Amino acid sequence: MAAPDGGLITQTNEQYYTGDDYGSYRYISIKELINNFLMIHVGDGKLISSVNRNEIIFHAKRAMQEFSYDTLKSIKSQELTIPNNLTVAIPQDFVNYVKASWTDDLGVKHVIYPTRLTSNPTEVPIQDGQGIPTQDISGDNLEGTSITEEKWEAADMKKITGGYDENFSDAAIDDFSKHRLGVGQRFGLNPETTQINGFFTINEREGKFAFSSDLVDKVIILEYISDGLAYTADMKVPKLAEESFYAYIIHAVISSRSNQPEYIVQRLKKEKRAKLRNTKLRISNIKLEEISQVFRNKSKIIKH
Length: 304
Known about the structure:
alpha+beta, 2 domains
């Protein structure tokens, strides 16, 4: 490229990151974070004169868990297809679910809600004719299959949602010309069940999510909270939270030792809280323009 004076503009050393390179540049690995901590915060004349590396590893992993619950971007999502057995395995790093949705032909998500209509038993002992659980030679109860789960898998959702024939699968009527029903004649239905998005439960006994029969072959998006410790590749910390991790580890190490001045422990505790608060503000990623765009929908006049 030619410069205004006729010379050539040389390429600078500026780096551009795409894909995995960009994703990795925003983070620092747990291993590197621990090495940096030992180099900067441990040694003669420092608050921590000496410490075992395994102790730092333990506190770093605990920090990763605690930060993943409410500070870091620890929400993961999986795109799955509901098989014929109506179950999908709970992810290895699952802590709690955020939302489950199925996607339609346009790719739009429809929220699937947990249900109180049924439940998954944690134990299914086999009983004899007297109702007493049978046991093996080790004295452990023999386990069978759940009758409740089998009934729920075979349930006709139309009898629960309010759909009464094969041409009426949507309990929320929006086109009265197709049905012999008028306004007000659906009064009394339960809004919790009068919907076609389906239901799910968490089967702790088998480590699976269980879905209602109307969701078979549906593509779903499962969003959940991860503790960030399931896989080595996932154990990385955003650079925006690096200082907060150091403060957490310093406080954890000092507070666990005997004969430490209480004012030092309390000072470190305040620093940990302050840096955690700053990290939350940095990572929150709140955009005023996006909030304003959502609020503009409130100005619409809803006609009845």
